[in-house]
Amino acid sequence: MKEKLIYITRWIAVLPASIIGSFIAYGIGMLINRWAAGFIYIDEGINFVELLTEIVLGGVISGGTFVSIGCETAPKHKKAVGVILCVLISSICLASMVYSVNLYGFIWHSIKISIQCIACIVTAVVVCNKYYKEQY
């Protein structure tokens, strides 16, 4: 009975764990990036390389941890869970890209969002592929 309850709880926790884990990992990654940037860049102001690193790093961390944590939380069918989470995060990213271009036009802000979303999608696909290969 206890094993069945744990099994059901793990299935219920897949999506919330993915979301919460992704937010926590993103926050930690951005803190580390800001901390490291403080040592690398002495001058004041925003450096383009630092900004681009933050954008790409944020997307990579978000996409990878979202799929990875969800797959590790799921008790079975990790391949199917990985594909579903990859499609979910990709759909959210594509909707975000379309919305930002429609809202802001083709300006730097929408380009930043698009770069971060593309990095997120690519990383989610890579992590999903890892779990797909582990099943076979």
Element-by-element helix/strand order: HHHHH
Helix content: over 70%
Mean pLDDT over the residues? 88
Q: Strand portion, in percent? A: under 5%
Structural category? mainly alpha
Total helical elements: 5
- What distance separates the N and C termini? 31 Å
Mind telling me the C-alpha Rg?
17 Å
Shape: globular
Low-confidence stretches: none
* Assembly context of the chains: single chain
The number of strands is 0
Largest sheet: none
List the keywords.
mainly alpha; 136 residues; 5 helices
Outline the structure in words.
The relative contact order is 0.14. α3 (48-73) runs parallel beside α5. This protein is globular. The protein is mostly helical and 136 residues long. The longest helix is centred in the last third of the chain and has 28 residues, at 108-135. Helices cover 88% and strands 0% of the residues.
Write the layout of secondary structure elements.
Blueprint: H1 2-12, H2 14-40, H3 48-73, H4 78-104, H5 108-135
Helix pairs in contact: 2-3, 3-4, 3-5, 4-5
